[in-house]
Amino acid sequence: TVERFVGKWKMTSSDNFDEYMKAAGAGFASRQMANLAKPSLSIAVDEQGFISMNAVTTFKTLEIKFKLDEEFDETTADDRKVRTIMSLEDGKLIQKQTWEGKTTIIEREIQDSKMIAVFIRVKFLKLRFIHHLKAE
């Protein structure tokens, strides 16, 4: 269930992120800022069943609010306008973004009290390991 993902998370490591960002079409300046960022991610569910994801870095704060399996508009950290759908599949929280005929998939799962987020675009694979922080 989505409740496994609820709480506060902090990025501890990242691999192949610049290659992923290039494949997604991000410009040099956006990639440099993203590579320096160490985001915190908060996930919550409200009483109506809406899920909110709030990502905070020193450069930017992004929030999306959604229901599972319902498409919505999203503006990404590098300012792409995408259509996004979130779903739960095999214990993973799947975020599928589409824009201009392109697709990115972000798979989040919990392993050993860590959230592992895998960003997939074409042949590039990028991993971010995020430790779980205690929920307030």
UniProtKB/TrEMBL annotation:
Keyword Transport: yes
Family annotation (Gene3D superfamilies): 2.40.128.20
One Pfam family named in its UniProt record: Lipocalin
GO molecular function, one term: lipid binding
Keywords: Transport
Coiled coil: none
Keyword Transport included in the entry's annotation: yes
Cytosolic fatty-acid binding proteins domain mapped to chain residues: 7-24
InterPro entries for the chain: Calycin (IPR012674), Fatty_acid-bd (IPR000463), ILBP (IPR031259), Lipocln_cytosolic_FA-bd_dom (IPR000566)
Top-level taxon of origin: Eukaryota
Family stated for the protein in its record: Belongs to the calycin superfamily. Fatty-acid binding protein (FABP) family.
Protein name: Fatty acid-binding protein, adipocyte-like
Organism (species): Sinocyclocheilus anshuiensis
Protein's gene: LOC107685598
